[in-house]
Amino acid sequence: MNILGIETSCDETAAAVVTDGVHIRSNTIYSQIAKHRPYGGVVPEIASRNHVAKLPGIIEEALSEADMDYKDIDAIGVTYGPGLASSLLVGFSAAKALAERLSIPLIGVNHHAGHLHSVFMGEGAPEMEGLFPMLALMVSGGDSSLVLMRQVGRYEIVGSTIDDAAGEALDKAAAVLQLGYPGGPVIQRTAEGGEADAIRFPRGLEQPSRSKWLYPYDRELCFSFSGLKTSLLTYVQKQESPLEGISMQHVAASFQEAVADALVQRTERALERFNVKSFACAGGVSLNRVLREKLTELSKVKQLPLLLSSPKLCTDNAAMIAGVAYEQIRRNEAMDEPIDVSPSLRLSDWQAA
Length: 353
Hints:
The chain is of the alpha/beta class.
């Protein structure tokens, strides 16, 4: 079965053709990073305008790369949340019109479910059998959470950030240090040559709380990056001269270490709490080298398989969306066609019945 995937949840315009859920025939992406870099972050209006201009050509390119025509497509999978409303509308409207014209099913897909599914896709990806239940660390610009997966399509969020996401923290750190955008890659590049233990930044939620815990998840499995961000800002403001050279490298390396430590510490706690057969990490931040190294070491200690998305599938793409759409169809769990986009869609809201 050939699925055309369409993804426009934020600032990547993407289309892909995937066969039988895992075989990627094409994965075409137009990145808008250069458009948003002058503003230090994604500007929704600019993002949606670029989606409108680029999506038709991206879809055609994906079909051409897959050596297929519209008649070869059996269904369309499209991201309908979470994300920027104006960006989601572009991809959703195009997918809906195309599905109606071709008289084929339209499958609405949760963007985060796509990231989680990406660990099963591409060359060298493992078979799903024997890997569930699985614990997944979802880390991106907009989300940081721990997800217990009983099987594909069955998600239970067991831990989450209570403020900033890890990717957001890296973006803000890069802005404070005046390193540019996006934050994750520039922090990692700047950290090369720096000492990760040069500065002791907080890992978040390290001290017992005196106030009532108001969040729906166990405090021990939750993340907090706002204090880390404030600590960095305070450190920079106290410096008598602007950071540069090795001093800047030390700061970047220490901040990156704090983010990775916080993510891995909570992951280890969750592995101790839940009886799982494997664990995974997905999302844009999963590209980070230090995080990957720490998770790989944790895998050895716990003697559990670790699944990581291939670098091309870590950031936003449409192949992962097509993969989830196929699984929904295969398991007869394809939900009714979504009537509209859902910018605040959660995994728990989206699960197939």
